[in-house]
């Protein structure tokens, strides 16, 4: 029986994953800002579910919830860092306050929870950290700059963490979903810059219009994404990065090709900066 610790479990991938692993007979610590609704929605889970209130930006709360989880279940096998949100707008349009709030949740919140769980995983000499990133955490376009930056940071943290904890028996995987029908782009979930500058109508404005039109029409199936994540958790050699969805795969392939082409084009200049002796 696997013990899961899932942040942002009230909706989206977090909710779908919570329901799926409970149906398999696993135990779940499902955290959210309002856990009451989660408990009410999953009455059949019984003692296998510990629904706990957690604001990931509160370091002490994260430590306390992890302590409660270990007291209840005795261990944590899989941490899923899922809590986070999207913010859309040009670099110039997004305010300092909104950018900092985004990083407080998407980056520093992830660090709070990860640091709280790591002592348990190290002591066990086992465990798996799943970090929910985004295709925008690998390749970003106009209008997604600050959101992409938060996910780029998450990927850097996870890549370094992978090297640090692998010798201790702890695995790390970054999941990079494309567009999935999770409600992430709904009017209730998405956040946009409060300032709107006409000069960005042809770039950011086009993105926002596409988001509005495509909400509910995304190609990705959340249930299949959850199945893929569960397969990775049970794999003897899980990947460091896992792209989910054809759009994510295409985006990553296109960026890798562009970087390789540019590297080759400017190779001589790049190599010219070393000392000649």
Which consecutive residue ranges, at least 5 long each, have pLDDT under 50?
A: none
- The Cα radius of gyration reads 20 Å
Order of helices and strands: EHEHEHEEHEHEEHHEHH
Question: How would a crystallographer describe the biggest sheet?
Answer: 7 strands, parallel
What best-fitting shape do the alpha-carbon axes yield?
Answer: globular
Count every helix, treating DSSP H or I runs of 4 or more residues as helices: 9
Helix content range of the residues, please? 40-55%
Beta-strand fraction estimate: 5-15%
How far apart the termini lie comes to 60 Å
| Tally of DSSP β-strands | 9
Mean pLDDT: 93
Strands side by side in the biggest sheet? 3-2-1-4-6-7-9
Structural class: alpha/beta
Describe the structure in your own words.
The chain is α/β, with parallel strands linked by helices and 277 residues long. Helix 1 links the parallel strand 1 and strand 2. Helix 1 packs across helix 7. The radius of gyration is 20 Å and the shape is globular. The termini are far apart.
Q: In a few lines, what is going on in this structure?
A:
Helix content is 48%, strand content 15%. With 277 residues, it is an alpha/beta fold. The strands form two sheets. The protein has a seven-stranded parallel beta sheet, sandwiched between helices.
How are the SSEs ordered, and which strands pair?
Layout: E1 3-6, H1 12-23, E2 27-32, H2 35-41, E3 49-53, H3 59-73, E4 78-81, E5 87-88, H4 96-124, E6 127-132, H5 145-165, E7 170-177, E8 191-192, H6 204-214, H7 222-234, E9 241-244, H8 246-265, H9 267-271
Parallel strand pairs: 1-2, 1-4, 2-3, 4-6, 5-8, 6-7, 7-9
Helix pairs in contact: 1-7, 3-4, 4-5
